[in-house]
Automatic annotation (TrEMBL):
<protein>
    <submittedName>
        <fullName>SH3 and PX-domain-containing 3</fullName>
    </submittedName>
</protein>
<dbReference type="InterPro" id="IPR001452">
    <property type="entry name" value="SH3_domain"/>
</dbReference>
<keyword id="KW-0728">SH3 domain</keyword>
<dbReference type="InterPro" id="IPR036871">
    <property type="entry name" value="PX_dom_sf"/>
</dbReference>
<dbReference type="Pfam" id="PF00018">
    <property type="entry name" value="SH3_1"/>
</dbReference>
<feature type="compositionally biased region" description="Polar residues">
    <location>
        <begin position="1"/>
        <end position="14"/>
    </location>
</feature>
<dbReference type="InterPro" id="IPR019497">
    <property type="entry name" value="Sorting_nexin_WASP-bd-dom"/>
</dbReference>
<dbReference type="InterPro" id="IPR027267">
    <property type="entry name" value="AH/BAR_dom_sf"/>
</dbReference>
<feature type="domain" description="PX">
    <location>
        <begin position="259"/>
        <end position="382"/>
    </location>
</feature>
<feature type="region of interest" description="Disordered">
    <location>
        <begin position="1"/>
        <end position="56"/>
    </location>
</feature>
<dbReference type="GO" id="GO:0031410">
    <property type="term" value="C:cytoplasmic vesicle"/>
</dbReference>
<dbReference type="GO" id="GO:0035091">
    <property type="term" value="F:phosphatidylinositol binding"/>
</dbReference>
<dbReference type="GO" id="GO:0005886">
    <property type="term" value="C:plasma membrane"/>
</dbReference>
<feature type="region of interest" description="Disordered">
    <location>
        <begin position="212"/>
        <end position="232"/>
    </location>
</feature>
<dbReference type="InterPro" id="IPR001683">
    <property type="entry name" value="PX_dom"/>
</dbReference>
<dbReference type="GO" id="GO:0006897">
    <property type="term" value="P:endocytosis"/>
</dbReference>
<feature type="compositionally biased region" description="Acidic residues">
    <location>
        <begin position="219"/>
        <end position="229"/>
    </location>
</feature>
Length: 710
């Protein structure tokens, strides 16, 4: 039976506010960038125009590896910067480096080069402070910058482990690896302090449900609409039913909505005066009705079709990442800046987007998220433009996500949870390695199909050359001297007047044989076409689908990290000093991570079964077509077809003209677009050109994505 987590006994966990965090692993940068665009009035993906006014000079304090998809700027400690706009949302600033590249940088990662104050130094006996950032009593405090309660690390954020007591006394036991998923997802803050709005969430939900029941009891239509609007408002605020998640006793996410299917299809090119050319896709959600007792066959599905472009998928992914930090979401396909309107790329992008949204709606929690419902159901452009800023402006869930996860009490065994994560980590790494090998082998299988196509075509040409006595260009000739070959070409008696392969005139037997062999040659050409098409279409689809099961270790690395870190906190809470409240919160996080592991287990079974069945069905259909054509050629040598072939003179084959220039050099085989986690991800052509020029002209400065556009 599902119960609520243990309620905190101390009221301080209810009234305590969530501490301010200056940096949230990059996911808050989208809000800062949106705020900057709204201020400048630009919605373009191009580099923003500089704002009027004098820019303040600054210098980077720490290394920062920015994420290009969030418009962040990569800097190294000591880089000279100009602060274009200091105060953006969620602790970000808009800065420019010496190369003129503009991007987002956390406000605490730089200091102004003038007008700073000096605070008393902190003496730490036996503690080395070189290359480490001090606590709130820092020796150098930038004027006008925010003081934070947390220590922002340099590079990876790992501190020396020689002084655990000092570290814990400063941070209250909080981890110093600011880039760890355990920290950035809000799991650590939830484990240590809980969530200030957990009780407010329950109270708001109870009030909303009570009001809804009261309104519905009056059977008044206007009140029903008000109740629906109130539920929608609570959902947008993260207080509604869509933000409450339940874990069953077997560590399975409780499904609120039945699975449904989403198709991304019919891409078309559009042009806008503001954003230029772009590709728009039809996104159709198919909701199949459950079968009834009277009729076992399901009825026709309900279809909802909307039009979305790639930037809309970016909005969906950004909002989901912020609202569901404890969920292993699939990566969004990378953006392409060159050749993005070619037919092959548009089809590859369509397939990647369909696989992405399909994995979203397969997840038992993500598919009923408010932003997913909005993405798949909003058909009005006006409504879309009105509500998108609201979804992007919603704060990151952080510890509030775990406050809204409900599970049976005492649903975790520490030893079992520790063993499960080690086995899961080992298994996903092995699966990833095996799938990478499978993808490579499958590419070679497709190449072999192309070679078989060339072999069948060459066999067809050779057979046609034999019965017509026409020389096949570039074909090896063995067993005949040059004199014999010239004699055969120039001599008579090669073909009779009916075009039969015979020196006798009016030979009906040779006429029937010649026509049957010519039909065989033409059938072999069609078989060659089947091999070529099978490798380029059917097998390419399977090759692309293998990306959906690749790199599970990278996808679930955040879940694994959070699980292990929570186990460590759980051990501290139950052994070193008993803390039932912290142990209860650790159980909530462990229930979440183990539910994610169970979700992967279920999806892995479905994915590999579907892949194997689709591959076998494709091979069966392919060989059935080949077999059908070969049987047709074979029947030409049996009666009555064989006799009918001698009823009229032979007509020249359409492939005779190709004997001088045979089609034995097919175009290159299209390869699937790389996975986001592949070692060599897809890159814009302009980036490759820029890097190539950098090798000739000297090293280029590290910068944001804007500098790589040109």
């Amino acid at each position: 039976m599902s119960t609520l987590p243990r309620s905190p006994k101390n009221s301080r966990f209810i009234t305590q506010k969530r501490p301010h965090s200056d940096f949230d692993a990059g996911i808050n940068s989208s809000t800062a960038w949106t705020e900057h665009l709204e201020a400048t009035g630009s919605l373009s993906d191009d580099e923003p125009e500089e704002e009027d006014g004098e820019h303040r000079q600054a210098r980077a304090l720490y290394n920062f590896e920015g994420k290009t998809e969030f418009r962040e700027l990569s800097v190294e400690a000591g880089d000279e910067l100009e602060v274009v706009k200091e105060d953006l949302a969620d602790g970000w600033s808009l800065v420019k480096n010496v190369a003129g590249e503009i991007g987002l940088l956390p406000r605490t990662y730089y200091t102004f080069t003038a007008d700073f104050t000096t605070a008393p130094e902190v003496s730490l006996s036996g503690f080395t402070t070189h290359h480490q950032r001090d606590a709130s009593s820092s020796t150098i405090t930038p004027r006008g910058s925010l003081r934070t309660e947390e220590i922002v690390p340099q590079n990876t954020g790992e501190w020396r482990a020689a002084f655990p007591s000092f570290r814990q006394s400063l941070l209250g036991g909080k981890s110093l690896n600011r880039f760890s998923t355990f920290v950035t997802s809000g799991a650590e803050e939830w484990v240590l302090k809980g969530s200030a709005d957990s009780e407010a969430v329950l109270a708001a939900q109870a009030a909303a449900e009570a009001a809804s029941h009261q309104r519905f009891s009056t059977a008044d239509e206007d009140d029903s609409e008000e109740a629906e609007e109130e539920r929608n408002r609570l959902n947008r605020l993260g207080l509604g039913e869509a933000d409450h998640h339940f874990v069953d006793a077997g560590h399975n996410w409780k499904t609120k909505l039945p699975p449904f299917q989403v198709l991304v299809h019919s891409p078309s090119k559009r042009t806008s005066t503001l954003s230029g050319s772009f590709t728009i896709y039809n996104v159709t959600a198919l909701f199949h009705p459950p079968p009834t007792d009277n009729d076992s066959s399901p009825g026709s599905p309900t279809r909802v079709t909307v039009y979305r472009r790639f930037s809309h998928f970016v909005i969906l992914h950004t909002a989901l990442t912020r609202r569901l930090p404890g969920i292993a979401l699939p990566p969004l396909p990378e953006k392409q800046y060159a050749g993005r309107f070619s037919e092959d790329f548009v089809e590859a992008r369509r397939g990647d987007l369909e696989r992405y949204i399909s994995r979203i709606v397969r997840h038992p929690v993500a598919r009923y998220a408010e932003v997913v419902t909005f993405f798949l159901g909003c058909e009005s452009d006006t409504e879309w433009k009105r509500l998108v800023p609201q979804h992007l402006a919603m704060p990151a869930a952080g510890p509030s996500f775990y406050a809204r996860v409900f599970h049976p009490d005492f649903n975790v065994d520490a030893d079992e949870a520790s063993d499960a994560v080690e086995r899961f980590d080992t298994h996903t790494r092995a699966v990833g390695k095996g799938v990478q090998g499978l993808r490579n082998i499958f590419g070679r299988v497709r190449d072999a199909r192309i070679e078989m196509s060339k072999a069948e075509r060459l066999l067809s040409y050779s057979l046609l050359s034999l019965i017509t006595s026409q020389t096949l260009a570039s074909a090896p000739v063995t067993g005949a001297s040059v004199e014999e070959e010239e004699y055969n070409v120039k001599g008579k008696g090669l073909l009779n007047e009916d075009g039969a392969w015979c020196w006798r005139e009016g030979c009906s037997d040779c006429l029937k044989l010649t026509n049957a062999m010519q039909k065989t040659s033409e059938v072999l050409q069609s078989v060659a076409d089947l091999y070529d098409d099978h490798a380029r279409r059917t097998q390419l689809s399977t090759h692309e689908a293998l990306k959906g099961v690749a790199h599970p270790s990278s996808l679930y690395q955040g879940v694994i990290t959070t699980h292990r870190s929570t186990l460590s906190r759980y051990s501290q809470a139950t052994t070193n000093h008993t803390d039932d409240e912290m142990a209860s919160r650790c159980e909530t996080v462990l229930n979440t991570t183990m539910a994610e592991m169970e979700t992967y287990h279920t999806q892995k079974t479905e994915d590999f079964s579907t892949l194997a069945k689709d591959h076998l069905d494709g091979e069966i259909a392919f060989y059935e077509q080949v077999l059908s054509r070969l049987k047709t050629a074979r029947r030409g040598f049996d009666e009555p077809q064989f006799t009918q072939l001698g009823a009229q003179a032979r007509q020249a084959s359409i492939y005779e003209r190709e004997l001088e220039h045979p089609r034995l050099t097919p175009p290159p085989l299209s390869q699937p677009a790389p996975h986001v986690f592949d070692a060599a991800p897809m890159r814009p052509v302009s980036v490759a050109i820029q890097e190539g020029m950098g090798m000739l002209l000297g090293p280029s400065s590290r910068g944001s994505v804007f500098g790589k556009f040109w």
